Amino acid sequence: QVQLVQSGGGLVQTGGSLRLSCAASGRTFSNYSMGWLRKAPGKEREFVARITRGGGSTYYADSVKGRFTISRDNAKNTVYLQMNSLKPEDTAVYYCKVVGFAYWGQGTQVTVSS
After folding, report:
1. Is-contact 14 86, C-beta < 8 A?
2. DSSP class of residue 104?
3. How far is 11 from 77, CA to CA, in rounded Å?
4. Which of 9, 12, 79, 113 could covalently link to 72 via disulfide, CB atoms 3.0 to 4.6 Å apart?
5. How many C-beta atoms surround the C-beta of residue 5 within 10 A?
6. Which residues are registered as beta bridge partners of 58?
7. Partners of 104 in the beta sheet?
8. Comparing C-alpha atoms, which of 85, 62, 60 is closest to residue 71?
9. pLDDT by residue (tens digit) across 24-62?
10. What one-character-per-residue DSSP string does 61-111 give?
11. What does the alpha-carbon distance between residue 36 and residue 46 come to, in Å, rounded to a whole number?
């Protein structure tokens, strides 16, 4: 069992930045690749970013590439999503997830005003 607790998010203007955090407890965090997904109103949930167990490789959706950065600190059992140059279309509930397992964070609202 892995528990994921998210923090961060909120309301920001277009062009602003936010950082999301996802703290894990339970099994060994460094054993798992971690990901971020988002769900906007009226849209399907979509992949945002993923990071491998050691943090050596990262992957991004085309829509966020160059603006978002996923990182992790295995000593703190935490994965981060730094979001820069935010756009209104980034407005969504963001979730962290253990890749390949049904362990999800509780979700964090990100709202970007135009």
Report:
1. yes
2. B
3. 26
4. 79
5. 13
6. 51
7. 97
8. 60
9. 998 789 999 999 999 999 999 999 999 999 999 999 999
10. -TTTTTTEEEEEETTTTEEEEEE-S--GGG-EEEEEEETTS--B---EEEE
11. 9
